[in-house]
């Protein structure tokens, strides 16, 4: 029998190791698995590499991990966004490394890892500082830069509903990076607002099939 | 510049850019000045606004109290969805941009060069960590890129430059420039002035612009209603 439901946040993040690359889905504060990331803070993992669009918002989730010095490096497109004080303090103090990646390149690099591809050539960033040191190749007369896949050890995602097979449905613009990150890690842990019986989700409307999901924890009261 | 030459307001720059958006276009509006463009779309045109966080059919900001915490725009502000709108994931949102499916990207800029190079993501200010967001994706990928900006800096320095002094977002991507003083096209022959405000001469405008300007055939006064 397949049952991906975990009864506690702590159990769902218990085996995350120091130095792990964690994919933190969300855009600003929307669609972020704050409760899972706070469980990771409790668990104590450190030297983390966090991949996220923004480097934390307010004092929750990823921002809390950064504020407590658990994150060594962030890979993101736009670190300062929507109450970025935790990031700014750590960055100015020299405690946090920053790798800047164009937003679509960030997403596509993870999709590439999920799809088992060895990289891709993108027109984005060609002729800019962010392409320095990367292979450039001309295809049909246009220059493209080689971008490498980006895989997570763990992905922390948030969805609206799940069944015990881990099929996921998101709500509105809280979908954002969640489907791509859910596919791109060795271990995918998801917090959901509602759990439903197998068969209760419309098969035509499942956004992330359960094959990509390892663990599901219900956090009914999440923002 | 003569006494009656009157610079456009930010709303008027946005209004002017809105008049050029074709009916049926899929359009991405950048954060800041371009966001104002949505308020000035002529009523006879149906435009679908794309948001990088996975939305097509972005509507106006909801009334206070009607905001949905799961529905925000690229600037992280409360948003709404029009009938016919859709949600999708980030990778598809950027596939739409990079693959040339988005007809038009309107962005702000620090500087634009005579060849259409765009600089709008960092000023190298050591006090701020840099952030690029979706700017490079839009600049390299949208089918057409137009920018809205003040013609000069607060200190009066030209923002239209021979070469950008700030790091590039993408080379040779900008096709049209809307400023508080003029509408300028980037052409193979250089910057071509399509419109400039009444009371301004090409010499006046050239004094505020680094690369050489030419007047386009059929150029007109730049006019916008009081807003």
What do these coordinates show?
The complex is a heterodimer of chains A (about 220) and B (about 230). Chain A has helices at about 10-15, 35-45, 60-65, 85-90, 105-115, 180-185; strands at about 5, 20-25, 50, 70-75, 95-100, 120, 135-140, 140-145, 150-160, 170, 185-195, 215-220. With about 220 residues, chain A is an alpha/beta fold. Chain A has a single domain (about 5-115, about 150-220), classed as Glutaconate Coenzyme A-transferase (3-Layer(aba) Sandwich). In chain A, helix 2 packs parallel to helix 3 (about 60-65) and helix 3 runs parallel beside helix 4 (about 85-90). Chain A is globular. With about 230 residues, chain B is α/β, with parallel strands linked by helices. Chain B has a single domain, classed as Glutaconate Coenzyme A-transferase (3-Layer(aba) Sandwich), CATH 3.40.1080. Chain B is about 15% helix and about 30% strand. In chain B, the strands form two sheets. In chain B, strands 4-3-2-1-5-8-10-11-12-13 form a ten-stranded mixed beta sheet. A three-stranded mixed beta sheet of chain B has the order 7-6-9, with no helix packed on it. In chain B, strand 10 (about 175-180) and strand 11 (about 180-185) form a beta hairpin. The two termini of chain B are about 25 Å apart.
List the SSEs and their pairings.
The complex is a heterodimer of chains A (223) and B (227).
Chain A: E1 5-6, H1 9-13, E2 21-24, H2 34-43, E3 48-51, H3 61-67, E4 71-76, H4 85-92, E5 97-100, H5 103-114, E6 120-122, E7 136-139, E8 142-147, E9 152-162, E10 168-169, H6 178-183, E11 185-195, E12 215-218
Parallel strand pairs in A: 1-12, 2-3, 2-9, 3-4, 4-5, 9-11, 11-12
Antiparallel strand pairs in A: 6-8, 7-8, 9-10
Helix pairs in contact in A: 2-3, 3-4
Chain B: H1 10-19, E1 26-29, E2 48-51, E3 55-59, E4 80-87, H2 90-98, E5 104-108, E6 111-113, E7 118-119, H3 135-141, E8 144-148, E9 160-161, E10 174-178, E11 182-187, E12 190-197, H4 202-206, E13 213-222
Parallel strand pairs in B: 1-2, 1-5, 5-8, 6-9, 8-10, 12-13
Antiparallel strand pairs in B: 2-3, 3-4, 6-7, 10-11, 11-12
């Amino acid at each position: 029998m397949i049952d991906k439901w975990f009864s506690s946040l702590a159990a769902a993040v218990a085996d995350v190791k120091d130095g792990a690359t964690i994919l933190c889905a969300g855009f600003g504060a929307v669609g972020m698995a704050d409760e899972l990331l706070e469980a990771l803070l409790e668990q104590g993992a450190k030297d983390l590499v966090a991949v996220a669009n923004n480097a934390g918002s307010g004092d929750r989730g990823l921002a809390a991990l950064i504020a407590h010095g658990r994150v060594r490096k962030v890979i993101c497109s736009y670190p300062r966004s929507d109450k970025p004080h935790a990031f700014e303090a750590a960055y100015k103090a020299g405690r946090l490394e920053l790798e800047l990646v164009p937003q679509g390149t960030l997403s596509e690099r993870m999709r590439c890892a999920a799809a088992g591809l060895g990289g891709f050539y993108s027109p984005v960033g060609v002729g800019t500082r962010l392409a320095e040191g990367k292979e450039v190749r001309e295809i049909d007369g246009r220059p493209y830069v080689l971008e490498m896949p980006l895989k997570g050890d763990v992905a922390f995602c948030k969805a609206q509903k799940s069944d015990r097979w881990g099929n996921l449905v998101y709500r509105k613009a809280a979908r954002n990076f969640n489907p791509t990150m859910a596919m791109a890690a060795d271990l995918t842990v998801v917090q959901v607002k509602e759990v439903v019986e197998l068969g209760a989700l419309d098969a035509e409307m499942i956004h992330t099939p359960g094959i990509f999901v390892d663990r599901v924890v219900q956090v009914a009261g999440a923002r | 510049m003569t006494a009656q030459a009157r610079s456009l307001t930010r709303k008027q720059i946005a209004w002017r850019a809105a008049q050029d958006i074709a009916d049926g276009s899929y359009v991405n509006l950048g954060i800041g000045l371009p966001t104002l463009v949505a308020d000035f779309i002529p009523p006879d045109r149906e435009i679908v606004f794309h948001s990088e966080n996975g939305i097509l059919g972005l509507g106006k900001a909801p009334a206070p109290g009607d905001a949905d915490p799961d529905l925000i725009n690229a600037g992280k502000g409360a948003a709404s969805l029009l009938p016919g709108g859709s949600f999708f994931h980030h990778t598809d949102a950027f596939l739409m941009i990079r693959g040339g499916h988005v007809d038009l990207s309107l962005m702000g800029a620090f500087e634009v060069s005579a060849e259409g190079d765009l600089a709008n993501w960092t000023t190298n200010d050591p006090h701020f960590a840099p952030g690029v967001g979706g700017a490079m994706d839009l600049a390299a990928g949208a089918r057409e890129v137009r920018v809205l900006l003040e013609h000069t800096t607060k200190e009066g320095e030209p923002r239209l430059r021979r070469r950008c002094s700030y790091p590039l977002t993408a080379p040779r991507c900008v096709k049209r420039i809307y400023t508080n003083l003029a509408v300028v096209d980037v052409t193979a022959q250089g910057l071509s002035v399509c419109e400039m405000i009444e009371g301004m001469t090409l010499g006046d405008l050239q004094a505020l612009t680094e690369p050489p300007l030419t007047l386009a055939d059929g150029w007109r006064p730049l006019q916008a209603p009081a807003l």
